[in-house]
Amino acid sequence: ILSKRLHVPVVTNPLLQEIAFGKWDGKQPARLQGKDRTMFETWRKNPTQASPPGGETIFNVQQRLQTFLENNDLESYPRPIIVVCHQIVGAALTCTLRGEDLSEMPQYYMKNTDYRVLSPEAFYRTS
Hints:
Helix content is 37%, strand content 0%. It has helices spanning 2-6, 34-45, 58-71, 87-98, 120-123.
């Protein structure tokens, strides 16, 4: 919709894909039981302390995001860009841009249809 309205191309990038959930892939969190449920709750509160069994760690996701940022100098674009991604990737991207530890991710979790403006002034810290 935005692409047509703003007359800009849609460009996809696999580096922005959602985290690979491994054993949890496709499962609703409410249906996880036992050890999986406990691990999922720990992971949601602090993704640096647990990871999906058989899936990616949050540090793997951050590596992908750093590669994306290295390959796409956001400050060089003549106008804002729109990055569409899932909640975990969006929160990890925000922490990465702000130079914050990934344990800060939960404060950046977004609901469906939420958006965040990513601008160099708001995210790149100079100190």
